[in-house]
Design a protein that fits this description.
Blueprint (H helix, E strand, L loop, with lengths): L1 H125 L2 H8 L4 H138 L3 H15 L10 H9 L11 E2 L3 E2 L1 H10 L9 H4 L4 E3 L9 E4 L2 E7 L2 E7 L3 E6 L7 E4 L2
Antiparallel strand pairs: 1-2, 3-8, 4-5, 4-8, 5-6, 6-7
Helix pairs in contact: 1-3, 2-3, 3-4
């Protein structure tokens, strides 16, 4: 009876140990599960933050390309303004020279007119006496004819010289007027380009401010990503430490269970040894129960268009108006709008910008320019018509017209056909 009670106590103790171990394992599993949940949450937040960082970096790259393009356009615009300043200065010198030439021509005309008036007055006051006296003083008929011819030559000379001087005055005055108009157009273009330069600088300032905001956002996102990574590392450390502790506790439990089995085995052996003398058959039941307990514990460009076709088509619109920003060949276009619309008629797409047209197609030298090539100036563009002439939308005063290609500094010649 005493042995049976002792066996039941050992079984109860084993059950208590098993329940305690189960509670400890439940607590350990809860700790690991909580840590794993935090890792999963941090991983999800890290993935979202990584996506945010990627989007910010893409936007930064796109914005940087815009800034680089605006910087390039601003540099080109500033260079154009410098070229225009030099051209305006040269026009001023040309106007000064034309003014001096005009004054000299006017003075020469005045002197010739005064000389002719004196001779006319002399001949009028003397009447025919001067001619008669001259003829009477002649030594021969040939001399008479020579003197008559001399009077006629003086008259013809006066008339010819006066006409020539008057024509010179008109030509110089017309040249001066043309130069002044060209200077006005250049000044207006320079002012427009300076305004564009100011607008570009403002755009660049705004873009750089936006880039600074992106830098701040990127820094914040990167800091969040660092924190999420740190959370993941800390929770992984908790899991590793908890798993190590569980392994140690499991090892301890295994050893205790092994010791309990050894003790139980020893108890059964003692009972078996005592059974023949006591006749107690309860030990078999205990052995069977122990055996059951032991078992339960196992755990595109077109190319078929000729330059002359383009020129011939462009020539149809000579005399039509110049309109700033316009693209209509009949109602009005500016220089780049005229070029864009002419080539557009042939299915060739070109930008509406004299600056961008400078990089279209292939660059060639002016000496190799062919009809249909683009002649690019500072803030202006036209179509080469051949023979040293261009056709394009010149200014509001002139409209669409032809003129000499070298009237200004040529910055580029581009072939798009």
């Amino acid at each position: 009876m005493t042995q049976r009670i002792r066996g039941k106590r050992l079984i109860a103790a084993a059950l208590v140990c098993t329940l305690a171990a189960g509670m400890v394992q439940g607590t350990n599993a809860s700790t690991i599960r909580d840590a794993q949940d935090k890792i999963n949450e941090a991983n999800e937040q890290l993935n979202q933050t990584t996506g945010t960082i990627s989007n910010i970096e893409k936007e930064q790259n796109s914005l940087q390309k815009e800034i680089d393009a605006l910087d390039s356009e601003l540099v080109a615009l500033l260079l154009d303004i410098d070229v225009l300043k030099d051209e305006i200065a040269q026009k001023e010198q040309d106007i000064e020279q034309a003014t001096a030439d005009l004054e000299e021509a006017q003075e020469t005309e005045k002197r010739q007119y005064e000389s002719m008036k004196k001779r006319i007055r002399f001949m009028y006051e003397r009447g025919d006496n001067a001619l008669v006296e001259s003829l009477l003083g002649a030594g021969s008929m040939a001399d008479v004819l020579n003197r008559v011819e001399y009077f006629n030559q003086i008259y013809d000379y006066d008339r010819t010289m006066l006409n020539e001087y008057q024509d010179t005055v008109k030509q110089v005055a017309s040249l001066k007027e043309t130069l002044e108009q060209e200077q006005q157009d250049m000044v207006a273009l320079k002012e427009n380009q300076e305004q564009q330069s100011e607008e570009l600088e403002k755009m660049l300032a705004n873009k750089r401010a936006t880039m600074s905001d992106f830098d701040t956002k990127l820094a914040k996102a990167q800091e969040l990503a660092r924190q999420y990574k740190q959370t993941i590392e800390e929770q992984n450390d908790i899991i590793v430490a908890e798993q190590a502790r569980i392994a140690a506790e499991e090892e301890q439990r295994r050893r205790e269970e092994e010791l309990r089995r050894q003790q139980e085995e020893q108890r059964r052996q003692e009972q078996q040894q005592q059974q023949p003398t006591t006749g107690d058959t309860s030990g078999g039941g205990d052995s069977s129960g122990g055996s059951s307990d032991d078992g339960g514990s196992d755990p595109a460009y077109r190319t078929n268009v000729s330059g002359q076709e383009v020129v011939d088509y462009a020539m149809q619109f000579i005399g039509n108006p110049y309109v700033w920003g316009g693209t209509s060949l009949t109602n009005g276009a500016d220089c780049s709008g005229f070029v864009m619309s002419v080539f557009g008629h042939f299915g060739i797409s070109l930008p509406h910008s004299s600056y961008l047209l400078r990089s279209c197609g292939q660059g060639v030298s002016y000496s190799n320019a062919k009809p249909g090539d683009l002649i690019c100036y500072s803030g202006h563009v036209a179509i080469y018509a051949g023979g040293g002439r261009i056709v394009g939308a010149q200014s509001s005063a002139v409209g669409i017209a032809t003129q000499t290609a070298t009237y200004r500094t040529i910055l580029a010649v581009r072939r798009v056909l």
